[in-house]
Write a structure and sequence with these properties.
The complex is a heterodimer of chains A (343) and B (637). Chain A contains 11 helices and 15 strands. Chain A is an alpha/beta fold and 343 residues long. Chain A has 2 domains: 260 residues, Rossmann fold (3-Layer(aba) Sandwich); 34 residues, no CATH class. In chain A, a hairpin with a 5-residue loop joins strand 10 and strand 11. In chain A, 44% of the residues are buried. With 637 residues, chain B is α/β, with parallel strands linked by helices. Chain B has 3 domains: 221 residues, Pyruvate-ferredoxin oxidoreductase, PFOR, domain III (Pyruvate-ferredoxin Oxidoreductase, domain 3); 185 residues, Rossmann fold (3-Layer(aba) Sandwich), CATH 3.40.50.970; 117 residues, Rossmann fold (3-Layer(aba) Sandwich), CATH 3.40.50.920. Helix content of chain B is 35%, strand content 20%. Chain B has 20 helices and 24 strands. In chain B, strands 11-10-12-13-15-14-21 form a 7-stranded mixed β-sheet, with helices on both faces. A 6-stranded mixed β-sheet of chain B has the order 3-4-2-5-6-7, sandwiched between helices. A 6-stranded mixed β-sheet of chain B has the order 18-20-19-22-23-24, sandwiched between helices. In chain B, helix 12 links the parallel strand 12 and strand 13. The chains are: A alpha/beta (343), B alpha/beta (637). Chains A and B meet through strand 3, strand 4, helix 2, helix 4 and helix 10 of A and helix 1, strand 9, helix 9, helix 11 and helix 12 of B.
């Protein structure tokens, strides 16, 4: 539980309300973003971080309006660049808790380069990637995560390119924390947000989020009470990869062909795996990241959480080492270095 | 520096071996070293410059090299040159044309000969004049034999043979031996100009301390070159260029990129804030990044970003956090950063963007200089998006103007473009070191009081508070969407938008209130005022001095502040009968001055990737001075 010292010096526990800004929320009615905002505002008081030390940085798109609604420091930047701006902030202020809010277009299309490099460097950023598989703010064009064949105003005959698998991309960059959630699984989403906050290093959370206007129902199978147990695979560290109404189905490893497949529990063949999010090699996590319907259930939860030094810590450690060896430099030393002569 | 320190008489000078040659005194000499890009011409030139500076000469250099790291050996495209002028007087340029040309191969001769002054000294490495090299350079016959060099004083020396002799028995390959030829050339020049070889020998040992064989070899050939001067009768004289009478003080030799890096890190110290320099490697700006990477213990952090856009973004992020955020690049990268600069305009955060300009458009000529990004800096973004723009005039002045850029950014909460160029970046001159105590602190203050805080509540200069994350009670949101003044809340209100556009402009305009008045070098009024900005300073200053010495009423106004302009610029322009704006572009500053002041400014423009020659400026101004002067060739109206 975090406490703030109010102006009078009194200690007070922060509540959800402390994280609600005075700005009217302007997403479309029924947008999945509302649920994500609410979970974030619920989790924030539990993190034990003074709210002036929390910064939300976003790019452009529906999701990127998020910082305006959080009563923390916030920076609504330009399309795709939030990870770069957040990296600069982290290099100058490593003690801050910096959250990046982005979408499938912002992070995976115009800002793809910044995303992979932030993940590769392991900058201590919490990246929430709202994936609704469509461009919302520009009114409905296909996005880099849209399914093949999606008909939109800019793809009347259906989009032809394969969608990015967000988590495969993140794991390809060897991100140290990779997870997925669904906007309507609110308890699970809260857990995931808490887990990101605890992680030191780049954390990417893909949140499947429904756009009721331009791609309504994209995740219905994962949300319908009747079908979701057949379509969601909840990953838990140390637990088997089971799903179905009675956990009767399992995702197994075919060791000969190095692939996963779905089987009935107890059937011979293959290897039942215990989920290990902390294993250094991202290979198995990559196999999980490639599990997509209809062949597979959709894995949600933490695919990978490993500990590695952060970019800013290593960079600043180099600076400290330089000072340790030769002392903090003065202007006199700086300017009067090298070959000099006097007149 | 005292004249009797003995450097002009090297120890080898006292030896009686070899013929005695007269010693002639010269005011200044312009030398150009030219060879393959792998021949080490930049190192040779730099070393000669360094010792000339240490000796007390005034110096100015102009390195000129191809973008290719190693173009095919012997090819015309691979020729790399380094020109320097050293003098016993104050000089402003590396010289219009060399009086001494050292040509390491036929291609170097062919590409540089036209620049050599008639009667100039031509030192040719005859060892490289073999059939293949001649063919690569496009010579049908060797120019050494066909009389085509008769108007020069040719000193043919087989460098290859001499270095091979000097290094026999060292076990070095002929390829490695050939690589030492540049130090052989340096040795010859040291003898010719009576420079003390000992400090150079120490310098070679230090530079090559990791490779004893190479160190020994370079020292040997350097000495061989030096001694050749004494024994070879082809040299009819030695020359002496006494030290210059520079102002009293401490000096070091510095390039523009080095001075820029020093200025940035000094500015951060003066503001008592950390510096984040975020950059993506690009010619000719990369050396700023390299230099700052070595200044970690002075409070500089460098970030080699994944691209130009990330670099400007990281700088903005650092500024948001309360550091001095700087990004550096050249023209193409500057174009990529413009959206980020626009964000900094909208959120009113400090940001310095270093643009070491090069010839464009697009990739253009990366290693060649140009001044064609002025309009890109002033108006190159979407929307009404004003920023401050400054430009250093000389390599050493890069230090002062880099500090000034940071000062304006921090004290006015705005982006500042700092326009250096390729010739400033790589050119060198003596820098009179400032006393750190004399440098004016930069006033950076963060808002801490939550009472009546509003993110866009402005002071009398229209500057908003810098309210950084981590400050209790100041939680607020900023962004690129138009915002209501004072509160900073998103606003699409038409009146508010117009108010914000005008306010952001007025904030930049009011910077002029603090600037010192611009000054003309020359008479208070007269016939022709030559106006320039940036790296053309040296040629314009030398040319206008020469014209005044000829009796003409010519002045020189060199602007360091391009946006806003200093308040008295309009008035200064009207003091002269004619105004010529000299720039290495099609007339960008001229357009701005004509637009703002309705003055009939003519243009002197050159777009060849090369600096102005003094004589080009002199000739152009002379035309204007003639009684019948009108619109003439070379002067764009």
């Amino acid at each position: 539980m975090s406490e703030v010292i109010a102006n009078g010096g009194e200690h007070r526990k922060l509540t959800k309300k402390d994280f609600e800004s005075d700005q009217a929320v302007r997403w479309c009615p029924g947008c999945g973003d509302y649920a994500i905002l609410a979970q974030m505002q619920k989790v924030m008081p539990e993190l034990g971080i003074p709210k002036e030390k929390i910064v939300f940085i976003s790019g452009i798109g529906c999701s990127s309006r998020f910082p305006y609604y959080m009563d923390t420091f916030g920076f609504h930047t330009i399309h795709g660049r939030a990870p770069a701006i957040a990296t600069g902030l982290k290099l100058s202020r490593p003690e801050l808790s910096v959250w990046v809010v982005t979408g499938d277009g912002d992070a995976l299309s115009i800002g793809g380069n910044h995303l992979i490099h932030a993940l590769r460097r392991n900058v201590d950023l919490k990246i929430l990637l709202f994936n609704n598989k469509v461009y919302g703010l520009t009114k409905g064009q296909f996005s880099p995560t849209s399914e093949i064949g999606m008909k939109t105003k800019s793809s009347p005959a259906g989009s032809v390119a394969r969608p990015f698998r967000t988590l495969s991309l993140a794991l390809g960059a060897e991100a140290t924390f990779v997870a997925r959630a669904v906007d309507t699984e609110t308890q699970h989403l809260q857990q995931m947000i808490s887990r990101m906050a605890e992680h030191k290093g780049s954390a990417l959370l893909e949140i499947y989020q429904n756009c009721p206007v331009f791609n309504d129902g994209a995740f219905d199978e994962l949300k319908d009470r009747k079908t979701k147990s057949d379509h969601l695979l909840f990953l838990e560290h140390g637990q088997p990869l089971v799903f179905g109404p009675d956990d009767e189905k399992v995702v197994k490893l075919d060791t000969e062909r190095t692939r996963l497949y779905v089987a009935k529990r107890g059937e011979p063949g293959g290897v039942e795996i215990t989920h290990d999010e902390a294993v250094a090699d991202p290979g198995l996590a990559l196999l999980l990241a490639r599990c997509t319907p209809p062949e597979f259930p959709t894995p949600i939860g933490v695919l990978r959480a490993v500990s590695e030094p952060t970019f800013e810590d290593q960079t600043l450690a180099q600076n400290r080492a330089a000072i340790a060896v030769r002392g903090e430099g003065t202007l006199q030393e700086l300017l009067y270095a090298g070959d000099r002569w006097d007149v | 520096m005292a004249q009797d320190d003995g450097h002009s008489d090297g120890p080898a000078n006292g030896s009686s071996s070899g013929p005695q040659r007269p010693k002639r005194r010269l005011d200044s000499v312009v030398i150009r070293f030219a060879g393959d890009s792998g021949d080490g011409m930049q190192l040779t030139g730099t070393e000669f410059t360094r010792t000339a500076a240490l000796y007390g000469n005034d110096i100015a250099t102009f390195p000129d090299f191809p973008a290719e790291i190693r173009a095919p050996a012997g090819s015309l495209a691979g020729v790399s040159g380094f020109q320097l002028q050293f003098s016993s007087n104050e000089i402003f340029t590396a010289g219009d044309a060399p009086e001494v040309l050292v040509a390491m191969n036929p291609a170097a001769l062919r590409t540089n000969l036209a620049d050599l002054e008639p009667g100039g000294l031509l030192i040719v490495n005859t060892g490289a004049f073999k059939a293949k090299n001649l063919e690569l350079a496009g010579y049908e016959r060797s120019p050494l034999d066909d009389g085509s060099l008769s108007k020069y004083r040719v000193i043919p020396i087989d460098f290859t043979k001499h270095v091979t002799t000097a290094l026999t028995g060292t076990g070095m390959s002929s390829r490695d031996i050939a690589r030492t030829q540049n130090f052989f050339a340096l040795g010859i020049l040291f003898w010719m100009y009576g420079r003390n070889p000992e400090p150079e020998i120490e310098s070679i040992k230090k530079k090559f301390s990791k490779n004893a064989q190479l160190s020994d070899a370079n020292v040997k050939v350097f000495q061989a070159g030096y001694h050749l001067g004494e024994t070879l009768e082809l040299f009819d004289a030695r020359y002496e260029v006494p030290p210059a009478k520079l102002e009293h003080g401490h000096y070091r030799n510095i390039t523009g990129n080095e001075a820029t890096a020093l200025g940035l890190v000094t500015a951060a110290k003066l503001a008592n804030l950390p510096l984040l320099y975020a950059s993506y490697p690009i010619t000719p700006a990369s050396d700023v990044l390299h230099n700052l990477a070595g200044y970690a213990r002075y409070g500089a952090t460098t970030f080699q970003a994944e691209d130009e856009i990330a670099a400007v973004g990281a700088a903005i992020g650092a500024s948001f956090g309360g550091a001095i955020g700087v990004t550096g690049t050249s023209g193409p990268g500057f174009a990529l950063k413009q959206e980020g600069i626009g964000l900094a305009v909208a959120v009113e955060l400090p940001l310095v963007v270093v643009n070491v300009q090069r010839a464009g458009p697009s990739t253009g000529m990366p290693t060649k200089t140009e001044q064609a990004d002025l309009l890109q800096a002033i108006v190159g973004r979407n929307g009404e998006s004003p920023i401050a723009v400054v430009a250093p005039a000389t390599p050493a002045e890069c230090f002062d103007i880099a500090i000034e850029a940071v000062r304006l950014a921090v004290e006015h909460m705005c982006p500042v473009a700092y326009l250096s160029d390729g010739s400033l970046a790589n050119g060198a001159e003596p820098w009179q070191l400032p006393d750190p105590e004399d440098l004016e602190p930069i006033r950076a203050s963060f808002r801490t009081d939550p009472e009546n805080f509003a993110p866009f509540l402005r002071d009398a200069r229209l500057v908003r508070p810098w309210a950084i994350p981590g400050t209790p009670g100041l939680e607020h949101r900023i962004g690129g969407i138009e915002k209501e003044d004072v509160s900073g809340n998103i606003s699409y209100d038409p009146e508010n938008h117009e108010h914000m556009v005008l306010t952001r402009q007025a904030k930049i305009d009011r910077i002029a209130d603090r600037l010192p008045p611009a000054e003309i070098d020359g008479p208070a009024s007269g016939d022709v005022l030559v106006v320039g900005w940036g790296g053309t300073f040296g040629a314009l200053r030398q040319a206008t001095l020469q014209l005044r010495a000829e009796g003409h009423a010519v002045g020189h106004l060199h602007l360091r502040y391009l946006n806003p302009l200093q308040s008295n610029v309009g008035e200064l322009l009207r003091r002269y009968r004619r105004v010529v704006v000299a720039e290495l572009n099609r007339g960008q500053l001229r357009s701005l001055l004509r637009d703002k002041y309705l003055v009939d400014a003519r243009g002197l423009n050159k777009i060849q990737g090369k600096p102005f020659k003094v004589r080009e400026v002199v000739e152009a101004v002379r035309k204007l001075l003639s009684p019948s002067a009108g619109v003439r060739e070379g002067l764009h109206s």
